[in-house]
Amino acid sequence: MTSTRANTPSATYGALRAQLATLTTEAFRPELAEIDQLSTADIARIMNGEDRTVPQAVAARLPEIAAAIDATAERMARGGRLIYAGAGTAGRLGVLDASECPPTFNTDPAQVVGLIAGGPTAMIKAVEGAEDSRELAAEDLDRLGLTADDTVVGVSASGRTPYAVGAVEHARALGALTLGLSCNADSALGAAAEHGLEIVVGPELLTGSTRLKAGTAQKLVLNMISTITMIRLGKTYGNLMVDVRASNEKLRARSRRIVALATGAPDTDIEAALAATGGEVKNAILVLLGSVDGPTAAALLNEAQGHLRVALQAAAARTA
């Protein structure tokens, strides 16, 4: 009789268990084995102490993060897209970051994209087996029509998730820029990517619950990637969100406050400038500071590829 032992679930899961046992993010902490016996206040104190270590882990990788952001901004300036790919918590964080770019920076929804293994359904419910498929990641990227100007960020706390690793491998083979964001050293994801970003936060409070410190670390780095890239692309003026999309009352009020902070102009002038520019904050600021009309502001910003400071210099040169 032919042995089927090598194909049994116990053999398969045994190999995976052995692999997980080598990961820092999966490590068991015996000193916390009776944490459920502590008071709520004590557990909260311990958890808060754990969270304070995350920014330090991110700080240790700032040079690598900055290099990855500069490379991303260079591609996006040529018309490329920023695409996140991950499973579970990592995938949800990528989708979250991507979804916040249009209202914050007035980007096209297709410019920053979040892919999660299993599709939109996986945002609220796990999709069986999706994270284990490299092929699914390749299919998702092919559906987007990936180009060499795009940037693909694989996100995985363990650094071994097949979907994230497969996305990076496929993207790199097509000439796209690749970043691998993980929370374990010497990860498969980091090795597969052109820019490996390994933020080692150590074992979790709850063994293997990587939505905790690892998730916080990923959120911090994704914040940096999208925000600083947008700063490099001229989506801000100083620390003001001058490309904010005023899609509700709060944002319409914020847009007027941004114009006021940038220009110091009285409310009547701000309203006139916004009316002359179709409510575009950046254009209104240029109208007020550059002493130009709405159409001229739009033309100058187009020539400056959206960089307000460059457009202001051009406006000043017109009147010199």
Would you write up a description of this structure?
With 320 residues, the chain is of the alpha/beta class. The chain has 14 helices and 5 strands. The protein has helices at residues 9-20, 40-51, 54-59, 62-77, 88-105, 134-144, 162-173, 188-192, 213-232, 249-263, 267-276, 281-290, 294-303, 308-319, and strands at 82-86, 112-116, 151-155, 177-182, 195-198. It has a 5-stranded parallel β-sheet, sandwiched between helices. Helix 11 (267-276) crosses helix 12 (281-290) and helix 12 runs parallel beside helix 14 (308-319). It is elongated. The protein starts with 8 loop residues before the first helix and ends with a helix.
